[in-house]
Amino acid sequence: MLTRIDHIGVAVRSLETAIDLYTQTFGLTLVTTETHEDQGVREAMLIVAEAPAGSSYVQLLEPLREDTPVGRFLARSGEGIHHVGYGVDDIVVALREISARGVRLVDERPRHGSMGAAIAFLHPKDVGGVLTELVQAPQAARAQEGAGQ
Ligand code: CO
Question: What pTM was estimated for this model as a whole?
């Protein structure tokens, strides 16, 4: 079901400072920065590796306001790993199968994530305390949207 680790989501106070840290320390390449109002974050994707199953990234997350999920996370826990994103081939099928195994879904339906991906979060209490995100890469997502029309 899971095809790869798509990204590690890291909560940061300053996107610019964190981008500098990851590019200067590890030589990572910044691919994109995006603002997602619905999630209350400004984010940056830095590519770690390309592989046949799809690329993997570090996702840096800066809250737009204190009263957002990442803002509350920073207040509670400080900077650090916020969630893990796993690649899946078909996010709708994956959500259905995972839900059937008793894991609660934060997102019953996929929504738009970084770089055009379809994403959905699983409830951390049902995944051993890890906020877990499923990611269907954009090409597969587009093909599926096209097929559904
Ligand atoms: Co993510």
Answer: 0.90
